[in-house]
Write a structure and sequence with these properties.
The complex is a heterodimer of chains A (about 110) and B (about 120). Chain A is mainly beta. Chain A has no helices and eleven strands. In chain A, a hairpin with a 6-residue loop joins strand 4 and strand 5. In chain B, the strands form two sheets. In chain B, strands 2, 4, 5, 6, 9, 10 and 11 form a seven-stranded mixed β-sheet that branches. In chain B, strands 1-3-8-7 form a four-stranded antiparallel β-sheet, with no helix packed on it. The chains are: A mainly beta (about 110), B mainly beta (about 120).
Chain lengths: ~110, ~120
């Protein structure tokens, strides 16, 4: 099975900072990677799919990049409402299964 | 409004059974894959099961043989039958809609979740 790791596991940054989260796959997965945001006490929300495509309604300060094994989620200017845990997720077709990364918790300094 | 609403969670003893339901509205339920995803308190997300539009089902090893996902398109409903429950199954269970976006697959709609507690 392909394993997903994320780094860092948590970070604290100031409002306005550029924040980058990394997701790494144990094998190449092309650009089949999605990112979710889960605010405290809330339901996960799809932010990005296909590694870099922004889901409708997601602020443009969020962006995704990468292909193969290494992917990044970037928040260009951190806002207080971005406090959340961010998860990457990959889809495997054979066998069909979904794998989430362990998550990265983002706080305001 | 596109919506998923779970129900059926509660407290169950180890070894017991529970059936979760998810009511869908606002979209053509029969046209979408559906999934269950769980999250233990303070932990990450774990995919639990999937059912395709043709009724094909998929599970990770952690629940295979104990959990059964099913759907009833006429009632716009998704179910998860959970048997032989263990303490490690304690979590919030979300139902989620799976969609193909380009060549990628993701969950674009999530329910609010239902809590399952396995304890004596």
């Amino acid at each position: 099975d392909i394993q997903m790791t994320q780094s860092p596991s948590s970070l604290s940054a100031s409002v306005g900072d550029r924040v980058t989260i990394t997701c790494r796959a144990s094998q190449g997965i092309s650009n089949y990677l999605a990112w979710y945001q889960q605010k405290p006490g809330k339901v996960p929300k799809l932010l990005i799919y296909a590694a870099s495509t922004l889901q409708s309604g997601v602020p443009s300060r969020f962006s995704g990049s990468g292909s193969g094994t290494d992917f990044t989620l970037t928040i260009s200017s951190l806002q207080p409402e971005d406090v959340a845990t961010y998860y990457c997720q990959k889809y495997n077709s054979a066998p069909r299964r979904i794998t989430f990364g362990p998550g990265t918790k983002v706080d305001i300094k | 409004e596109v919506q998923l609403v779970e129900s059926g969670g509660g407290l169950v003893q180890p070894g017991g059974s529970l059936r979760l339901s998810c009511a869908a509205s606002g979209f053509t339920f029969s046209s979408y894959d559906m999934h269950w995803v769980r999250q233990a308190t303070g932990k990450g997300l774990e995919w639990v099961s999937a059912i395709g539009t043709a009724g094909d089902t998929y599970y990770p090893g952690s629940v295979k043989g104990r959990f059964t996902i099913s759907r009833e398109n006429a009632k716009n409903s998704l179910y998860l039958q959970m048997n032989s429950l263990r303490a490690g199954d304690t979590a919030v269970y979300y139902c989620a809609r799976g969609v193909w976006s380009g060549y990628d697959y993701a969950f674009d709609i999530w329910g609010q979740g239902t809590m399952v507690t396995v304890s004596s």
